[in-house]
Design a protein that fits this description.
The protein has helices spanning about 5-10, 20-25, 45-60, 90-105, 120-125, 130-135, 145, 150-155, 160-165, 165-180, 195-210, 245-255, 255-265, 270-275, 285-300, 305-320, 345-350, 355-365; strands at about 15, 30-35, 65-70, 115-120, 185-190, 215, 230, 235, 330, 340-345, 370, 375, 380-385, 395, 400-405. By secondary structure, it is an alpha/beta fold.
C-alpha cells in the first residue's frame, strides 16, 4: 500500500488540488510541505495533534516537513471557523507561545540534519511595506472570490473586520515565500483552511508561473459533528502541566462508542490490518479498543512510561470505584424497549439508579451519569438491546451508585 492510499484508508484526506501530482510527490518522498501553527496559546492542543501526526507519517516516508510558526499571522488572527474576533496578542506573548510550541513539536518531528525545518513567518511578514505588498500581490486577489471564501462565511453576518480580511493574503504570501526560500511545493492544513490554501497556490502560479499543491486534512469531529478535543473545563492540551497525562488518557478512554474506531484509524500508528480486525468489535470489546486508543495516543504525546502510569491509574480508579465482577446487575429483555430503544432516563429508572424520570433527568443534566465511563449529558441518548449484550455496560450515577446492565 502506498502512503497516499494509506492516508485515504485512514480517512485523513478531505480535499486535494491535483490528486495525481500529490500522490506522486508524497509516495516518492519528494514533497517539501508545510503546515502552519498560529501561537494563540502557550501549548499545542488536540486540534494540532492530528496535523503533527500527519507530518510524522509523511516524514517517515522521506518527505520534508516545514513547521511554520505564525509569529506574523498570529498578530492578526485567523477568522476561519470563528463567530467572533480572536483576542489580540502582544508580540511578547506570541514569542513566548512560539518557544512553547518548539519544545512540543520536537516530540513528533525529527529536525536533525535538515530532515525538517521550523521557521517563523514573522521573519518576512513583519518587515513588509504595505504599499510594496499591495503592488506585489494585490492584483492577484479577487475581492469577489475572497468574499465567497468558506473561511469568511461565519463572520459575514456579524461583521468581518478589514484586519481579518487580510489574513488570506498573509497566509497565501507565506506559501509564496516558502516556495521561493525552501522549495516548498505543498501545503497541508485543516479542512476549514481550503480557501486560504487555494489563495497560496494561485499566488505562486500567477507570480512565479509554477505549480504548487494543497491538501486538507479531515477535521476530527465526533459522531455529533462537533470538534473533538474539548471538555467542560476547556481544551485538551499537549502540555502535561495544562492537561496531565492521566487526564489526557482519560479523555480518549471515554470517547463515544461511535467515535473510537475512527480515532484509532486517524490518529494512531497501528497497522491498518490490526485496526481492520477491530472493526466488528462491540460491547466490552469496544472498551478494550478505547484503552488501546488512550494508551497509544498518550504514548505518542507523553512517552511510554507516562502512558503505562496513566493506564495503571485508570484501572486502579475503576476498581476502587466499586466496579467489579460481583457488582449489582440489572437484566433487560426485549419487552423493556419501546420501538426497539430505551432512553437514558428510562434506563436509570429500570436500573434502580433513579426513582422517577424527573429524578433521572436532573442527574443527567447535572452531569452525574456515565455509561461505561462516558459522561451522558443529552437526555435523548438512547440504547438498543444489542448495546447490552455480551458483558453489558456499567452505569454510574453520582460517586457511589453503580450497576451493571446486561441483556438477558
Amino acid at each position: 500500500m502506498t502512503l497516499y492510499d494509506e492516508l485515504v484508508a485512514r480517512g485523513l484526506i478531505a480535499q486535494v488540488t491535483n490528486e495525481e501530482e500529490i500522490k506522486k510527490l508524497i509516495n516518492e518522498g519528494k514533497a517539501t510541505f508545510y503546515i502552519g501553527f498560529d501561537p494563540t496559546a502557550d501549548s499545542l492542543h488536540v486540534g494540532h495533534f492530528m496535523a503533527l501526526c500527519l507530518m510524522k507519517r509523511l516524514q517517515m516516508a522521506g518527505n520534508k516537513p516545514i513547521a511554520l510558526l505564525g509569529g506574523g499571522t498570529g498578530m492578526i488572527g485567523d477568522p476561519s471557523g470563528r463567530t467572533d474576533m480572536r483576542q489580540m496578542l502582544t508580540k511578547e506573548t506570541i514569542d513566548h507561545n512560539i518557544e512553547c510550541f518548539k519544545k512540543q513539536m520536537s516530540r513528533f518531528i525529527d529536525f536533525s540534519d535538515g530532515k525538517a525545518l521550523m521557521v517563523n513567518n514573522a521573519d518576512w511578514l513583519l518587515d513588509l511595506n504595505y504599499v510594496d505588498l499591495l503592488r506585489e500581490v494585490g492584483a492577484c486577489f479577487s475581492v469577489n472570490n475572497m468574499l465567497r471564501a468558506e473561511c469568511y462565511k461565519q463572520r459575514m453576518e456579524k461583521g468581518l473586520s478589514f484586519l481579518e480580511f487580510n489574513y488570506m493574503i498573509m497566509q497565501s504570501y507565506d506559501f509564496y515565500a516558502l516556495y521561493q526560500k525552501y522549495g516548498c511545493n505543498m501545503q497541508f492544513g485543516g479542512n476549514d483552511q481550503w480557501s486560504n490554501m487555494l489563495g497560496g497556490t494561485e499566488l505562486i502560479r500567477r507570480k512565479l508561473g509554477k505549480d504548487a499543491y494543497a491538501m486538507t486534512i479531515t477535521l476530527l469531529l465526533n459522531s455529533e459533528g462537533k470538534k473533538m478535543g474539548k471538555t467542560q473545563s476547556g481544551a485538551v492540551w499537549l502540555d502535561p502541566n495544562k492537561t496531565s497525562p492521566f487526564d489526557f488518557y482519560q479523555y480518549w478512554r471515554n470517547v463515544a462508542d461511535a467515535d473510537v474506531m475512527k480515532c484509532i484509524r486517524m490518529l494512531t500508528f497501528l497497522p491498518l490490518e490490526e485496526i481492520d480486525a477491530m472493526a466488528d468489535w462491540e460491547g466490552s470489546q469496544l472498551n478494550k479498543a478505547k484503552e488501546i486508543l488512550a494508551y497509544e495516543l498518550t504514548k505518542l504525546v507523553h512517552g511510554e512510561e507516562e502512558a503505562k502510569k496513566a493506564q495503571s491509574a485508570a484501572k486502579a480508579l475503576f476498581v476502587q470505584a466499586g466496579v467489579s465482577a460481583d457488582m449489582p446487575e440489572c437484566e433487560l429483555i426485549a419487552d423493556d424497549f419501546t420501538d426497539g430503544t430505551m432512553d437514558i432516563l428510562g434506563l436509570l429508572v429500570k436500573a434502580g439508579l433513579a426513582a422517577t424520570r424527573s429524578e433521572a433527568r436532573r442527574n443527567v443534566t447535572q452531569g452525574g451519569v456515565t455509561v461505561d465511563g462516558e459522561k451522558i449529558t443529552d437526555i435523548k441518548t438512547s440504547y438498543s438491546l444489542d448495546d447490552f449484550k455480551g458483558d453489558g455496560k456499567v452505569v454510574k450515577r453520582g460517586k457511589k451508585k453503580f450497576i451493571k446492565v446486561v441483556a438477558k
